[in-house]
Structure formats: C-alpha cells, structure tokens
Design brief:
single chain; about 180 residues; alpha+beta; Alpha-D-Glucose-1,6-Bisphosphate, Chain A, domain 4; 2 domains; five-stranded antiparallel beta sheet; 4 helices; 5 strands
Length: about 180
C-alpha cells in the first residue's frame, strides 16, 4: 500500500512537471531583468554580429588612442617599438603584457637578457608602463642568473614613454 502511494505521488509530480513546459498562446511581456539589459548593452555571445567575445558596439573604449585593445595604443606601440630588436615570446594587447625571449647581443654572446613589459593603463601616463629585466651570463655550469642594474628597467620605461609621446604628437599633427 505504501509503495502504491509513493508511486502515485511520483506519477502526479511527473505529470505536473510535464504540464509546466506547455506555454500559453499569448505569452505575457515582462520587464527585462538586469542581466538581459546588460546582455543588450554589451553584446551577446552569438547574435546578428556573429560571436562577440569582448562586448558589443556600445562598449566604452579606453583612454585616448585605445583603438580596440585593452591598453593605451600609444604605450602599446611604443613598447613594441622599444623591444623590436628582441624576439617576442608573447604579446597580449588586452592584458598589456609583452614577454620577450632570451636575447644575446652580438658583441657579448656570453650574456643574455629577457624583458617582461607591462602596459598598466588605458591612458598615456608616466606610471602606465613597467619593465622587468632579467639577465643571465654563461659560466662553467651553464646559464646563471646575474644582477641587473636597476636603472635598466627605468631607462626602458623612459624610452617607451618618450616614444609614446612622439607617436601621440605625430597623430595629433595629422588631424
């Protein structure tokens, strides 16, 4: 008897659940939720424009010269210019990180350097770029880490900022 009661309850629950998926003829129009408004404002994963991963057309851009990347365009281009003599290992314009591969200067093949450069801001600011420089020297036991002059990173940051200002001035003069 108990099994029949339990089976009846399960059967009634299944029928009611199945009925809940039937939609009425004239579906009511409810106000949009916050999530629906956000999806319309920033774009959808699929839609008329295809796959939109980083926002729709109304997504606000970054600081001056953002150009559709996550960081300031002038700082980004200046960073690539400053490191153009070194082989790149990775460059992420949305995260603002450039990582070079090890580079040995032709005049000193027993030394090599590697740079990780961070573009930190969407605006062209003096504190918008940071550089980390790593150095190794070839010894009897192979490549070993060596000290880097602290001014090296600062000099690289200054070179990037100077080049970014030049690019910005050139762009302003074209307008």
């Amino acid at each position: 008897m108990r099994a029949v009661s339990l089976l009846s309850v399960l059967l009634i629950g299944t029928v009611l659940t199945a009925c809940s998926s039937i939609l009425p003829q004239g579906e009511a129009s409810y106000p949009k939720t916050e999530d629906e408004r956000e999806a319309e404002r920033f774009g959808k994963i699929t839609g008329e424009d295809g796959i939109v991963l980083f926002g729709g057309r109304n997504l606000p851009r970054g600081g001056e010269g953002a150009g559709g990347i996550g960081v300031n365009t002038y700082l980004w281009r200046a960073s690539l210019d400053a490191l153009s003599f070194m082989p790149l290992s990775s460059a992420d314009p949305f995260g603002g990180v450039i990582i070079t591969d090890w580079y040995s200067p032709p005049q000193n093949p027993n030394e090599r350097v590697k740079v990780t450069l961070y573009v930190l801001d969407r605006d062209l600011r003096a504190d918008g770029v940071r550089a980390a420089v790593f150095r190794q020297v070839l010894g009897g036991a192979g490549w070993q880490d060596a000290a880097v002059d602290p001014r090296t990173g600062t000099d690289l940051e200054d070179a990037v900022l100077t080049r970014a200002r030049q690019l910005r001035i050139t762009n302003l003069n074209r307008k």
